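Practice problem: predict the structure.
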Amino acid sequence: MSTGVKSYAAVDLGASSGRVMVGRVGPDSLDLTEVHRFPNRPVRVPEGLRWDVLGLYAGVLDGLREAGRVDSVGIDSWAVDYGLLDADGALLGNPVHYRDGRTDGVAEKVWAAVPAGELYAATGLQYAPFNTLYQLTAAHGSVQLGQARRLLLIPDLLSYWLTGEQGTELTNASTTQLIDPRTRDWAHGVAERLGIDLGLFAPLRRPGDPAGVLRPEVLEETGLTGPVPVTAVGSHDTASAVAAVPADGERFAYICTGTWSLAGLELDAPVLTEESRAANFTNELGLDGTVRYLRNIMGLWLLQECVRAWGEPDLGALLLAAARVPALRSVVDAGDAAFLAPGRMPERIAEACRDSGQPVPDSPAEVTRCILDSLALAHRKAVEDAQRLAGRSADVVHIVGGGTRNALLCQLTADACGLPVVSGPTEAAALGNVLVQARAHGLAGDLAGMRRLLTRTQLLTRYEPRGGTQRWQAAQARLARG
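Answer:
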């Protein structure tokens, strides 16, 4: 290993799989290697849909064993979900999955105590039925919550098992709808009015803060030689992914693609207007005082569910066939909560097209093209709306995450937005995770420096928009009428 190069383990947990990556960072180098990947399979039990968090932790330990010597470990994952610990620090049951139905109808109870407009003005978070605030309201009065003495978000729970130390990382905490994005601290008034005990949460940590060292038992199980520090990163995977957007300057929009599409702008301050709330934009916290101003779009979940329903056909062949289907024949609202639950996705997309008076896609290629056109249309609207609501213009759209592998989606997004799209890096969350660790240990520089390093070292692809945006405007108007 060359002088000045350090190694960092990035634990990156997605909704369908987890991975441990090793990033090697030097003054002018950044290499990322996947050393272990493992499935993340939720389990439906009599009481509902649950995460197999013990299986995830076993995957993390296996990955650290494969990683070998590292200078630090960081963990990021999806947002909002949590584990509850008792007074002895033991886990009280498997964490509830955000797609579980327990929050159905809960929002109305919350808004009766804190009207939706007041809640948005205080927390800046868009309405999503699975936000931690709604989950805690749904759990109110349960035996499990009554016995709980600590609540740890998923990355913080795994970090606790690795180190024995408890904390609540800020970027992920900002997805709970219990953080004030102006003060970057808890929204005490909101919690008090809803009867939520903020004492359940461990003290807040910021990206780059120390989060303990691996316990002796973990060192023994993984074969690592201590001390190995654990570093708080942007533990919400989107925070890490946005940190890894290889942008130059401020005039950019981003789309973090994968199971979800998170589309928006990076700002210096939250946008808490009623117009912003009505447009369902969220203000989540990012690195170095930034705000991730974005809209949640259902994302490639729609295609993933269809592929599963079709028996896992070859994705490359399916996308080639979809590219030959006429554009914008049928579109659906890719942000519609009707698509949130798993199961019957091809039929549900067909039903949505039928109900809106559009041609009904009846082959996998037609359904796939409908999904990709719909996602590009949703990306266009989110980027447009974000610029208008924030008063900030964008000259380029950066797409990062798993969707960068889908060249058709990237090109359609460029066409829809009428802006060039720069695609890459694919493993943005893991790279952001690694770079925050590297910065905490004296490498990688500030956020702008991190992005310059990414631009020099990562494979990026540029897509220029084709044709005008009139047909996309027409499709958007058609969808609005439907």
